[in-house]
Automatic annotation (TrEMBL):
Pathway this chain belongs to: Amino-acid degradation; L-valine degradation
Cofactor(s) listed in the protein's UniProt record: FAD
Family: Belongs to the acyl-CoA dehydrogenase family.
PROSITE patterns according to UniProt: ACYL_COA_DH_1, ACYL_COA_DH_2
Domain Acyl-CoA oxidase/dehydrogenase middle: 124-217
Molecular function in Gene Ontology: acyl-CoA dehydrogenase activity; flavin adenine dinucleotide binding
Residue intervals of the Acyl-CoA dehydrogenase/oxidase N-terminal domain: 8-118
Name of the protein in its database record: Alkylation response protein AidB-like acyl-CoA dehydrogenase
Chain ranges of the Acyl-CoA dehydrogenase/oxidase C-terminal domain: 229-378
Pfam families tied to this protein: Acyl-CoA_dh_1, Acyl-CoA_dh_M, Acyl-CoA_dh_N
Native source species: Sphingomonas aerolata
One of the protein's GO biological processes: branched-chain amino acid catabolic process
């Protein structure tokens, strides 16, 4: 009866591989990356050697062709060490998947070999200064000029901007609204591409975030991913997986903080005994563990639905993202409270996770937008 809820042996092996990589290459260094704003490109590239740069890229294109549950397991494991770095790897995977899933043979041959090895890194460019939640209102325009497109506009809050070499970019090639949006692969070194200043963020310090500016950038027509006018559909399909991954990043970070809180409350003594012996502490930890397991169960189910292309996959991805990210932040906040004043200090990892997880309820679609998606699915005739 319980077998349907168990991970397979292969999934457990993947999970354990990601956990070992995290313990060896991420956790010991994450605090320094955060404090000094270090972008750990060597560590990220090392993840590619395990296949983690192309988790759901097809084997024909050099990927490891896993499902969305396996991807969630990897992201959750790596976030136990550093949610910021894990989320960055998730974004690269989303961009690589879009090229593999919707690109022509020429586009795949041109970009995927270097993306699979992370010799080149990829960003996903949808959000603009004036269009966040209303992504279909984007203004970055591409105008046809012979066989090329001339791109003008800007993208905001782009992870990896300035460092990454490849930008999978949603542009307006036609009418207003979603049907006028197409997807182009734009390279860092193309004339007219520039970047804003590195944003000074609350968290996610191990990855750069900048504005990407396109000033009359000439992009070959062959760099279009999918057909003209299909960009918005491609972007939304990518977000189903991205939402699962960012939810998984919240689960991994929250699990780390729960474990840290359990260890701390066992050691910390007040009134002559460990604070873990107090019923209030036990009840608090029990609620944190219960809520985390519930969010994990929903996220794993949603991941299975996205892999199976189930009709309700988008609804479940939105539900899981909303619950996992809200729960993750809540668990970390309570872990900080259990640490008392020490939780507020950078000597302990809790405050870093508190900062890193806060943005998860905003990106890949705000949690208010997740509620809109679910609500519309529930009430449409």
């Amino acid at each position: 009866m319980t077998n349907q809820f168990d991970l397979t042996d292969d999934q457990r092996e993947i999970q354990e591989l990601a956990r070992r990589f995290t313990a060896d290459r991420i956790t010991p260094h994450a605090a320094e990356w955060d404090e000094k704003h270090i972008f750990p490109r060597d560590t990220i590239k090392a993840a590619a050697e395990l296949g983690f740069a192309a988790i759901y890229v097809s084997e024909e294109s050099g990927g490891i062709a896993l499902g969305r549950l396996e991807a969630a397991l990897i992201m959750e494991a790596m976030s136990y060490g550093c949610p910021s770095t894990s989320a960055f790897i998730s974004i690269h995977n989303m961009a690589a998947w879009m090229i593999d899933r919707f690109g022509s043979a020429a586009v795949k041959d041109k970009y995927l070999p270097d993306l699979v090895t992370m010799d080149r890194l990829a960003s996903y460019c949808l959000t603009e200064p004036g269009s966040g939640s209303d992504a279909a209102a984007l203004k970055t325009r591409a105008v046809r000029d012979g066989d090329d497109w001339i791109v003008t506009g800007s993208k905001q809050f782009i992870s990896g901007a300035g460092e990454n070499e490849v930008y999978v970019t949603m542009v307006r090639t036609g009418e207003e609204g979603p049907k006028g949006i197409s997807c182009l692969v734009i390279e860092k070194d193309m004339p007219g591409v520039s970047f804003g200043a590195n944003e000074k963020k609350l968290g996610w310090h191990s990855q750069p975030t900048r504005q990407v500016i396109f000033d009359g950038v000439r992009v070959p027509g062959a760099n279009m991913v999918g057909g003209e006018g299909e960009g918005f559909r491609i972007a939304m399909m990518g977000l189903d997986g991205g939402r699962l991954n960012i939810g998984a990043c919240s689960l991994g970070g929250a699990q780390r903080c729960l474990d840290e809180a359990i260890a701390y409350t066992r050691d910390r003594k007040q009134f002559g005994k460990p604070i873990a012996d107090f019923q209030n502490t036990q009840f608090m930890l029990a609620d944190m563990a219960t809520e985390l397991e519930a969010a994990r169960a929903l996220l794993y189910m949603a991941a299975a639905k996205v892999t199976a292309n189930a009709p309700d996959k988008t609804k479940f991805a939105a539900m899981a993202k909303r619950l996992a990210t809200d729960t993750g932040s809540s668990v970390v906040d309570r872990a900080l409270q259990l640490h008392g004043g020490y939780g507020y200090l950078q000597d302990y990892p809790i405050e870093r996770f508190w900062r890193d997880l806060r943005v998860h309820s905003i990106l890949e679609g705000t949690n208010q937008v997740m509620r809109m998606i679910v609500g519309r699915e529930l009430t449409r005739q």
